[in-house]
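Provenance

Sequences were taken from public entries as deposited. Structures were produced by running a predictor on each sequence independently, with no templates supplied. The record for Phage virion morphogenesis family protein from Candidatus Kentrum sp. LFY is shown for reference.
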Amino acid sequence: MQFTVDFETDHLDRALSALRKAVSSPDEMMSSIGESLQPINEDRHARGVSPDGEEWKELSEMTKKEKQGGRLLYQYGDMTRSFHYQAKGSELTLGFSDHKSVWHHFGTGSHGRRGQSYTITPKKAKALSFAGIMRKRVTHPGIPARPLIGFPETDRNLVVDVVEDHLMDILKRVRQGNK
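Predicted structure for Phage virion morphogenesis family protein:
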């Protein structure tokens, strides 16, 4: 007694072809990753924590007085609104277009990479006004680093999940006869 099993490779060929196409042109998958990472990073920013979950350093007393209880790293919302992702080919860029984000992410002056305070001078007026004091120039002690973006383990796990979901969706479409 015997039986014969014929293995039809058409379905497997279609599945592998669809997966190869998705991997060679991953724009859609990269956009899905960007769409998944953006709200997580926005939430961290709103909560005032770094990508690794560490709370940002509090504002100085002078800055708190000037801001009158405003949210940390949020004056007009320009920096937050500038947060975006861009997916192109096999590359995903996630970040801020507002130049202030660099100061906040890395810190400035004595807190930052340069290790020194810095002088601020007026650009349009004759004097600066800070906390009700008028000066021709001021020495700023610097801004402590408050990391805005990164790629912690939780984000890496999310990316793996998004990629798996994307590939499984492709296989499901092939199984249903759609490419």
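DSSP finds six helices and six strands in the chain.
Residues 36 and 95 are 14 Å apart (CA to CA).
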